[in-house]
Amino acid sequence: MGLPIAGCDRYRNDVVGRAAVGSHAKKTYGADGSMDRVLGAAYHAPYGTPLGPDDVRVEELAHGEPGRSDGRAVVRRLRLRARGTDERDHEHELRVDERGLGHPLVDGTPLPGGVVGPALGEQIAPDDPDLEVLWVDQVLRGDAEARLSMCEAARAAPAPPWEGDGVGAALERAERNVVSYQDEWASTEDVRKDESLSTWLRRHTPYMTAPWELFRLDLDSEECLGHRVEKYVFLREYACRDAQDSNGPRIRYLLHAFDPRNRAPETFQLVDGTPFTAFIGVRTDGPAVVAYDADGVLPRDLLEPHLVPLRDLGSVPLDERTEAESWVAVGIAGTPMLLLIPPGPSVLRLHTDDDGALTVLELSDLEVTRTSRLREKRFRRRWGRFLDENVELAQEEIDRAVRELHERLERRHETLAADLPAGPRVEGQQR
Amino acid sequence: MKSMDVQTGFPDLEIVEGVENPRCSWNESVCTASVEYRIRRRAGEDTAESAVGGEVELLCPRHYVLSLARLLEVHEAECGTPAAEHLAEYGPLNQ
Ligand SMILES: [Zn+2]
Ligand SMILES: [Zn+2]
């Protein structure tokens, strides 16, 4: 499956070496279809690794056999030798104890951070039924990443001076007009568990000049905003402003409404079932906000009477319960809109660009976003060789892919002509 | 190796008959490979689609494969309209 990457001998040697050792595996991990079930119809290992689920060594241990974890007997052990960011091989291990809890280790030491999901990096609980599969995939991702970066390093000239986090690098970037961007994904549950929302926001926007502002929504009073709209309290809105535009903010009401006191799954759907992503974004020039844009937010003045400032962090820990159980409104100083974060799980994406001059915070439904990110990742794994422009593709390989895709298109076209009325459908209805 | 344009550093582009700018339409990276395939998307309905419906996209083999694969494996699932419905025509240029 893993094929050599052109121009990278180290990788090629590894693939050859691997093939000779591969037959040691006694059991084939994932042969029961669990990899497919959890990570996609046909599991594809991350692009760049010659390893796969077959390389996992599985041992069932009788009670009382040596090997304990947290004082509990280990009943099952998964092991996989794979590369780490230090370019060396490590022994990765997942110990499942008698309670069914999984403990990931590297070279015998507990893995900091534990197991995280492939789509959003969300923390996976030790008793999650999919923990083993997600652990295997995580080890493979690490191996692929390490190998690809080694190839990159072997191929590339010395790193250009604008790469890196230092001040010198930032200046180089500014001079050459190279922008530094970053994308952080997190589940709101992880953020609430590990730190507070404002710590997380600040940690990932160190160069942002307009401060974040956080409030708890006080929705105890029944009449809260209720008179403004018939049934629901909040409307989705859109606000956008550009410093060049003297007309002031444009605000437009959208079709959808939701009730923040009763968070239903459709919080992040339009009335027709289309998922949507709410966001606030600003562009700054020095300390001044020069432009902003938003969707699915509310004007600050409308909410003002119901805002309770969340205490600033620093040394004062935030009341966890408050943040976890309430709607939280996030704003950016100098802008007139607030993004509402519901209690319960959802996804945050923080995008920064232009060395901190552009900041966008997005909020979307956890399951919808996970599914769509996973789909994108599967595509990138499946078509890794085509996406990797360092790979020379053989004519035969291209022809085969073209033929296959044409067939799929035609097949669907026939099915469609045979039994389907045209018209939009949402994914959930297809299955 | 193709001859290189002195000013841009990119290889000279081959001229495809009847088309002024035969550069590969792939927009996730700069591609200077020669174009061999075409895709014309249907205009309308799909507002989420970045490509403007009705215009012919010319693509190198690699990016033709990726464009069709993305349509089938990513976009179709998200938009709900079958992939084939999106395309008015597709295939090699010399047909
Ligand atoms: Zn191309
Ligand atoms: Zn579509």
TrEMBL record, chain B:
Protein name, per record: Uncharacterized protein
Species lineage: Bacteria, Bacillati, Actinomycetota, Actinomycetes, Micrococcales
